[in-house]
Amino acid sequence: MKRKITYYMLPEYPVTIIEDTEEGGFTIYLPDCPGCVTCCQKWEDIPVAIADAQREWMEAVLENATPPEEEHQEKDLDYYMELNYNVDVLKHDENGYTVGIRELPWITARNQSMNIAFELLDCSKDSWLQDAVKSGFPIPEPPREEIQRLCEEVIKETEDD
C-alpha cells in the first residue's frame, strides 16, 4: 500500500512524498521542477534527498538551456543603431559643450551649441558603428539594466504628461 503525503518545505515550495508502506522508503516529487523525482529509505533523509535532486535538476536545466532568442540573432548595423547608448556631457566651458558616449568613450563631439554637439556625436557614432560592423570589431553594448531603467523613466515621463 502507498500513502501520499504533501509536504511543504516553504509555503511556495511544494513537495509530494509517496510512502511505500509495503517495501519501505519514500518517493519524492518536486512539482515546480518538472521531471525531478528522487527517493530515499528514511524520513529524516528526505531534506538531503530533495536538496540533491534539486541541485542535479538545476544543473541539467542550465546545461541544456538555450539562450534567449535575441542572443541567436545576427547583430547587424541596424541592431547596434537601435541601442540606447548612454550619452554624457563631458565638459561645458567657454569653448562650448563636449559630449561623449559612456560605452564608446573614444567617440566624442564638441560644439558651442549642445544640440549640434549631440548631432555631431550621433554622426560620429553612426560612422564608427558602420566601420566596426564591416571589420568585425567587437562593439560594446549598453548594460541591460541601464536600458531597463531608461525604459522605465520614459514610461514614467509619458504617464506624467
Amount of beta strand:
25-35%
Distance between the termini: 67 Å
The ordered string of helix (H) and strand (E) elements is EEEEHHHEEEHH
How large is the count of helical segments? 5
Rg, rounded, reads 28 Å
- Classify the helix fraction into a percent range: 40-55%
Mean pLDDT over the residues:
78
Biggest pleated sheet: 4 strands, antiparallel
| Low-pLDDT regions | none
Gist of the model:
The chain has about 160 residues and is an alpha+beta fold. Helix content is about 40%, strand content about 25%. It starts with a strand and ends with a helix.
Element layout with pairings:
Blueprint: E1 2-10, E2 13-20, E3 26-29, E4 37-40, H1 46-64, H2 69-72, H3 77-82, E5 87-93, E6 96-101, E7 108-111, H4 114-135, H5 144-160
Antiparallel strand pairs: 1-2, 2-3, 3-4, 5-6, 6-7
Describe this structure in words.
- The chain has helices at 46-64, 69-72, 77-82, 114-135, 144-160; strands at 2-10, 13-20, 26-29, 37-40, 87-93, 96-101, 108-111.
- The chain is of the alpha+beta class and 161 residues long.
- The strands form two sheets. A four-stranded antiparallel β-sheet has the order 1-2-3-4, with helices on one face. A three-stranded antiparallel β-sheet has the order 5-6-7, covered by helices on one side.
- It is 42% helix and 26% strand.
- It is built from five helices and seven strands.
- Strand 5 and strand 6 form a beta hairpin.
